[in-house]
Fold these 2 entries.
Entry 1:
Amino acid sequence: MASVAADKIDEPAALRLTNVTKTFGGVKALDSVAFDVRSGEVHCLAGENGCGKSTLIKIVTGVYEAEAGADIEIFGHRETAISPTAMRASGIAVIWQDLALFPHMTVAENIGFDEMVGTIPRPVRYRQMHVRARDMIAKLGLKLDLDARLNSLPIAQRQIVAIARALMSDARLIFMDEPTASLTRAETDRLLDIVRTLSAQGVAVVFVSHRLGEVLEISSRVTVLRDGKLVGVFGTQGMTQSRLSELMTGASVEQSVSARDRSAAAPVLEIAGLGREQEFADVSFTIRAGEVVGLIGLIGAGRTELAHALIGMTQPTSGHVRLNGNAVATRSVRDAIASGIAYVPEDRLSLGLIQPQSIADNISITVLRRLLDRVGLISKKKKGDLVTKWIADLAVKVGHPDNAISTLSGGNQQRVVLAKWLATEPKLLILDSPTVGVDVGARAGIFRIVRDLADSGLAILLISDEVTEVLSNADRVFHMSNGRIVGEYDPRSAQAGDLEARIYA
Ligand SMILES: Nc1ncnc2c1ncn2[C@@H]1O[C@H](COP(=O)(O)OP(=O)(O)OP(=O)(O)O)[C@@H](O)[C@H]1O
Ligand SMILES: [Mg+2]
């Protein structure tokens, strides 16, 4: 086990916990875990999906209670009963993985929420709240419409709102559960700068991310969990990404597959001159059977908007779409599914899943008609077989398929979204940022599935921000910027660095 980063070793512990255990219906989410973070330290919590990271944060912030025997000290005080309000009052803030914002309130209201509804009843001071929210956004060097309703904003901007909200309380210990999951590189860099500033001011930051480069860049120590157990605490000096992923998975993860030439295969999707006012224009390309086409670009480049038009959520205002040689005009998502198009959205929490329903229901919802028996009722056996198959194929870590989807860890929910759409047996599969929030081991698994699907003749459109991921998994790559396709690349010759420079130029 590596030693503590030398510069922080004398700092007092902001948080120290030992022997923390939490069981959910027989599953040990945490098993006698120890963890500590010092004031001014950035400490990462790393591990595969479902290893217990979010659960640890929820215990320290009073959302869940640890089992008997746990010892938790916060700023030197031994805590026996932790409540979310008491924690906030003692200087702890959290950016939750699912953001936990209020979709119908404005940006300003979301940022100022805790002030607005303090523990003491008092009139809401809207103007002051507005000013404070504006100052915080400015301090973060960002631009956001304070009066926009949250549900009108793209996920990346909602994430920024969650960050601003957490920073409003002048916390001394901040938990950030995958704060960069939906952010672009530029936004991530800005957030990492903010984290460095906070740490220089003596704030302790516990940071969770599946982007291992980021973990090594920002933290001085990393605590690795595997299946709810502590693997160890490691200094990040000299640590490599591959070593870290070995510690997380217990095995080495191989990377990189070369692109194939599919130019002789039959076209599945052909789009010509496709446009939608204010969103994208003059988009033309073809995806052939068995081909994985990557679409990279910045958030706001029009990639998700293009996907929404293809899946029938919106209607294009110009151009043509052909599927297997036939003109299609999809008026609704139902039309699109019927014609063989499936879409795995980037925003899995609001578009991808029905939160109160079970894992099994979420997987089978898109194909209910196929599950009917002779008298028109849903066949339990057919449904059970389908659900079992996809849980096994995608290695979803579940207690029982009838549990609510909300009992799954974030990355496992993402796999259920994928399963739900793959169950429709589509001809064209659109994946929008499929590995956001997914651990390294599972990423490799998802891409293995993507390639198997392509080999079985599926055409795949892969939207992603991660250039290296697209280069190692797509057969051809398009760059989209300001609503237009501005470049095409062959992954066999393109250099990740060059491509990144062009995208972020
Ligand atoms: N409320 C709950 N009910 C039942 N099981 C739960 C509940 N919350 C978490 N779990 C289970 O506890 C385990 C740890 O989940 P947790 O959310 O802490 O994982 P994580 O490390 O944050 O993963 P990810 O990287 O995917 O976010 C998982 O097996 C999860 O299914
Ligand atoms: Mg989590």
Entry 2:
Amino acid sequence: MSDMFIATSMPDRDWWAALWPDPEGVLRALGVQPEMTVVDLCCGDGYFTAPLARIVGGRVYALDIDPAMINQARGETARQGVSVSNWIVADAREVAALTPEEVDYVFIANTFHGVSDQTALARAVADILKQSGLFTIVNWHDFPRERTAVMGQPRGPKTEMRMTPDSVRAAVEPAGFHLARVVDLQPYHYGTIFERTL
Ligand SMILES: C[S@@+](CC[C@H](N)C(=O)[O-])C[C@H]1O[C@@H](n2cnc3c(N)ncnc32)[C@H](O)[C@@H]1O
């Protein structure tokens, strides 16, 4: 897919599940709460989409550029018995045109490092968030890749593509956000939680 962000293909489920044994706990630690309306931007095969939908009660816009990912995510949520109100096959940069209401929370995991114009994407997110809505970005820590092994092999983006919380902040705050919190997600990730200010 030509418009895909670089180095953002979906990891294999075996080591992904070993790395993230409790995706629902991660989402709760990142401030996702019942009754929120949320967007799962670049949702992949639904690994986080299903628990997200379970927490909020189904009010989820799940978007990915790859129709095969959306199909897998649909299958995964059905298998887990949770419903997702909106499935969208599209480029994340078009999210503002495709979300017909303001939402409480936008979640993007394991993808932001590959986005070419990160501030522009953050602006598109700001356009669909309610005042004081939250934008959470989950990234691999900027550890050397050889240090982030799962099931015996180094995993995650190349070392030089990894971002620090400060570099995420520098990209996102100019779009109308302030960094509210950084949450460490053991063993290799962190979440930056931004609040919309404009
Ligand atoms: C590494 S996967 C992460 C999936 C999921 N967020 C997770 O953490 O389990 C990145 C996903 O981003 C999607 N993606 C890449 N470029 C995109 C774009 N421009 N617009 C929307 N989705 C995109 C890919 O198809 C892939 O499913």
